[in-house]
Design goal:
The structure holds 2 protein chains of 2 kinds. Chain A is α+β, with helices and mostly antiparallel strands. In chain A, 34% of the residues lie in helices and 11% in strands.
C-alpha cells in the first residue's frame, strides 16, 4: 500500500470522528459496561434484580401458548378464502404437501431440477430478468383481487453464487449458498411473510414475520449446499436476503401453481 | 440511584461540572467513579493492552481538567465518551500501539471495504463533510441499524459485544452492517464521493 492510499484510508476513517454528537450520545447512553462482566449464574440467582429478563421470558411463554391457536386461525382464514372462491385449481391446494419434490440430490444440476419439475407437472415460469418477476407478481395480485386463494409458499432459486451490490459475483463469506424458506399467508387484506434462514457455516437460523409488499422465496431443505429458485418482484431485491442483494438478477423462477 | 457495579450513588453531572469549575480535584474522582467503567470499556475496544487503556483514560481525565472550564458539556457522557474514543484512536495510530494490535485496525478495514475504491479525500474539510453526510444518513436507517453501525465502526466493538449490549443475534448484526454499508455507499456516491 503506497503512502497516498494509506493517507486516503486514514482520512476515510477519520471522517467517522466527525459524526454528530447526538448520534454518539444516543448510543453511549445505551452502553452498559457491566454487561461485559455480568455473571450469568448470578443473574439466575437474583431474579428480582433482573426482572426485565424474567418478564421477557414470561412474555415468550405467553406468546407460545397463543401460537397454536393463532396458526390455527390463519389456517382457517386460508380455508375460508378457498371455500369462498368457488371452483378453482386451488381447491385441493395444500402448501405443505409434496415436500418430496424438494428432495433433490445435492449435486443435481439446476437444469436437471428444472426439467424434473416440468416433467412432474409443475407450471414453470422462466424468469431471466426482473420484468418477468413483476409480471408473475401482477398475476398473483390479480388472483387476489379476484378473490382467488392466493397464498403460496414455495419457490426455488437457482444461482451459482450470491451477488452483492458492491461485490458482484461474490458468494457469501464462506463460499456457500444460503437457504431460505419463505411462507406467505394472505388473509384478504394483508400479506404475512414468514421466513426461516439457514446457513450451514454460520450455524444459526432465525424466523421472523414481517409484512411486505412483495415476496421472496426459496426453500430450505437441509443444511447442505443446494441450488434453488426464487421469485420476487422487488427490482432492488432489498429485502431478498440478510446477507446479500442483487444488482443484476439472473435466475429461473418456478411459480408454485400445481 | 445505584451506579454501575452497585457502587454508592453517583454524583449528578451538573455537580461534577461545578467541581471542575471550582477547580476542586474531587471532580476527577467523581468522574472516574461515574464514567470510569465506560471509558475503559470504550478504550479497550480500540487498544489491545491494558496499559494503553489505562494511559488513555488518564490522558482523558487530564484533558477534562484542562477543558472544563471553559467548556460546560451539556451531555457529560457523550463528551467523555467521544474524548476517550478519539484519544484511543489517536493512540492506536501511534506506531508502537499499532504494532501491538487493537481492534480498530480490523474494524477500520471492514468499514473501508467496498467504500474506499478511488475515494479521494483531499483534506480535513472533505473528512468533515463525509462525517456530516454519514451522520445525516445514519438518522434515516432506524434506531437499531444506527446503534449497530456506531457501536461497530465508531466504538470498534466486536459482534459479541454488540450482541451483549443490544440483545440482537449475530446474524441480525451482520445483516444490519452489510445493508447499512451498501446504502451508505449509494449515499456517498450521490454526494459526490467516488466509491
Amino acid at each position: 500500500m503506497n503512502n497516498e492510499m494509506r493517507m486516503r484510508k486514514r482520512q476515510m476513517l477519520e471522517s467517522l470522528e466527525y459524526l454528530d454528537d447526538d448520534l454518539i450520545s444516543g448510543v453511549l447512553k445505551k452502553i452498559k459496561p457491566e454487561r461485559e462482566c455480568a455473571d450469568p449464574v448470578r443473574t439466575w440467582r437474583t431474579p428480582l434484580k433482573h426482572w426485565k429478563s424474567i418478564a421477557a421470558l414470561a412474555a415468550c411463554v405467553v406468546l407460545l401458548a397463543f401460537a397454536a391457536p393463532t396458526a390455527s386461525f390463519i389456517s382457517q382464514v386460508i380455508s375460508n378464502s378457498r371455500a369462498g372462491a368457488g371452483n378453482n385449481e386451488y381447491s385441493d391446494y395444500d402448501p405443505y404437501k409434496d415436500s418430496a419434490i424438494f428432495d433433490y440430490p445435492i449435486d443435481m444440476s439446476a437444469e436437471d431440477i428444472y426439467a424434473d419439475l416440468l416433467a412432474g407437472g409443475w407450471t414453470v415460469y422462466e424468469n431471466g430478468k426482473m420484468v418477468a418477476g413483476e409480471e408473475l407478481w401482477s398475476e398473483f395480485h390479480q388472483k387476489v383481487r379476484d378473490k382467488e386463494p392466493a397464498s403460496f409458499c414455495q419457490a426455488w432459486y437457482i444461482t451459482t453464487g450470491y451477488r452483492s451490490s458492491y461485490l458482484p459475483h461474490e458468494v457469501d463469506p464462506d463460499g456457500m449458498p444460503c437457504l431460505e424458506l419463505m411462507e406467505v399467508v394472505y388473509d384478504g387484506e394483508t400479506y404475512y411473510y414468514s421466513f426461516r434462514y439457514m446457513h450451514p457455516s454460520l450455524s444459526f437460523d432465525y424466523s421472523d414475520i414481517r409484512e411486505y409488499k412483495y415476496l421472496k422465496l426459496s426453500k430450505k431443505m437441509n443444511q447442505n449446499e443446494r441450488q434453488f429458485y426464487f421469485l420476487t418482484n422487488d427490482p432492488k431485491l432489498e429485502y431478498w436476503s440478510p446477507f446479500y442483494s442483487f444488482s443484476a438478477p439472473d435466475y429461473k423462477v418456478i411459480y408454485y401453481k400445481k | 440511584m445505584k451506579g454501575h457495579f452497585g457502587r454508592s450513588e453517583n454524583m449528578d453531572d451538573k455537580k461534577i461540572i461545578e467541581l471542575f469549575f471550582a477547580r476542586d480535584e474531587s471532580a476527577l474522582g467523581e468522574t472516574e467513579k461515574k464514567y470510569g467503567a465506560l471509558c475503559r470499556y470504550i478504550a479497550s475496544n480500540i487498544l489491545a493492552l491494558k496499559e494503553d487503556v489505562d494511559e488513555c483514560v488518564s490522558d482523558v481525565m487530564l484533558a477534562l481538567w484542562n477543558a472544563i472550564p471553559p467548556d460546560r458539556p451539556d451531555d457529560m457522557r457523550a463528551y467523555i465518551g467521544k474524548a476517550v474514543r478519539n484519544r484511543a484512536y489517536a493512540m492506536s495510530r501511534d506506531a508502537n500501539a499499532w504494532k501491538r494490535g487493537g481492534r480498530i485496525t480490523v474494524v477500520g478495514e471492514e468499514f473501508l471495504a467496498g467504500l474506499d475504491d478511488g475515494t479521494d479525500l483531499a483534506s480535513d474539510f472533505e473528512a468533515k463533510r463525509m462525517g456530516k453526510v454519514i451522520s445525516d444518513f445514519l438518522r434515516t436507517v432506524g434506531e437499531a441499524n444506527k446503534d449497530i453501525f456506531v457501536m461497530r465502526y465508531y466504538l470498534g466493538m466486536s459482534h459479541a459485544q454488540i450482541m451483549k449490549q443490544t440483545g440482537f443475534t449475530e446474524g441480525k448484526i451482520k445483516m444490519s452492517l452489510r445493508r447499512t454499508k451498501e446504502k451508505l455507499a449509494e449515499v456517498l456516491r450521490k454526494e459526490g464521493f467516488t466509491v
